[in-house]
Design brief:
324 residues; alpha/beta; TIM Barrel; 11 helices; 9 strands; 12% strand; globular
């Protein structure tokens, strides 16, 4: 089983066929960065058309059982997520509406301060806000995963403590391995994993030692170390693959509408576009290489299977339905 905890590609039939060639059974796809509710609905409309046109390759994912159905029929299950709480605007009622429309993940902040939590680019982190606490409770109730991939340390630790259900960091790496601003401290990872949450390892070059020149051996050694430190059952892959996106999309991701300046984020301001992916993971056809790398790093077959998708499947099964 192969499940990717996050992708934001420029979607096409070619990419969908590459998913099938790579044996990818499910993908959490981003449908919003700074989009409002109505703009997010337009993204969902676009996915409706993709499901209609490419029904031989894709199916809409709502529960973990849809992953099993995808595997049985040779397709990839697509699960929706938002990288910012902007789709709920300032209305907690939209959490349930968006869940009904298929949204299964929502980040409480994307780099900046939101109405709910603090992003990892802010100088100060006052933690989860009053509205944030209420939204977490509502997400817990309906079955939407609290994702803290772009949030600051205190906010993430508090979210893990406040949430009645395990939360996720869908796409990041340990900052002790590579001190990117978006990577996570030991305290943050422990706060999430000790409460049953998940860490999805990112393959985005800015999050890797060596960037685009990162080695498979180095990445897989890091994963093996995390398995020893945090427990292999809490780990998965969240590639953060932004395949075929034009460089102009980076400006939308970083800047949205909140500033008139261009915010380049991590990486060089002289080269604000997408960096080349490492040679060992160019696209979805290269999942075999991760499997092989994890085996070479010392994980046994059951541990490799867990990281490659089994853990995400179990987490999805426990997370996407209403609270008991």
């Amino acid at each position: 089983m192969r499940i990717d905890g996050l992708q934001y590609a420029n979607w096409s039939e070619r990419i969908f066929r590459e998913m099938r060639a790579g044996g990818v059974d499910a993908v959490h796809v981003t449908v919003a960065y700074h989009e409002t509710f109505r703009e997010t609905v337009l993204q969902l409309e676009a996915w409706n058309r993709r499901f209609e046109r490419h029904g031989d390759l894709l199916l809409r994912g709502r529960t973990a059982a849809d992953i099993d159905r995808a595997r049985e029929t040779g397709r990839t299950a697509i699960f929706f997520g938002a990288q910012n709480p902007s789709p709920i605007e300032d209305d907690i009622g939209l959490v349930e509406v968006l869940h009904d429309l298929g949204l299964r993940f929502m980040q409480l902040s994307y780099n900046n301060q939101s109405l709910l939590a603090t992003g990892c680019y802010e100088a100060e982190d006052p933690g989860i806000t009053r509205m944030g606490r209420a939204v977490i409770a509502e997400m817990n109730r309906v079955g939407m995963v609290v994702d803290m991939s772009h949030s600051a340390d205190r906010s993430t630790i508090e979210a893990a403590e406040i949430s009645a259900r395990p939360i996720a960091i869908t796409h990041a790496n340990p900052s002790a391995w590579h001190p990117a601003r978006r990577n996570k401290s030991d305290a943050v990872i422990r706060a999430v994993t000790e409460r049953g949450g998940m860490l999805g390892f990112s393959l985005y070059p800015h999050h890797l030692v060596g960037g685009s020149d990162s080695t498979l051996e180095g990445f897989c050694a890091m994963v093996a170390g995390c398995a020893s430190a945090y427990g292999v059952e809490h780990l998965g892959i969240g590639s953060d693959l932004c395949q075929d996106q034009p460089d102009s999309v980076v400006e939308w991701m970083r800047t949205g509408r909140w500033t008139k300046e261009v915010d380049y984020g991590e990486g060089s301001a002289a080269a604000p576009g997408f960096p080349p992916m490492p040679g060992w993971f160019r696209d979805n056809r290269d999942w075999d290489r991760i499997d092989e790398g994890l085996t070479a790093a010392g994980l046994d077959p059951s541990e490799v299977a867990a990281v490659m998708g089994g853990n995400w499947h179990r987490f999805f099964a426990a997370s996407f339905g209403p609270a008991a």
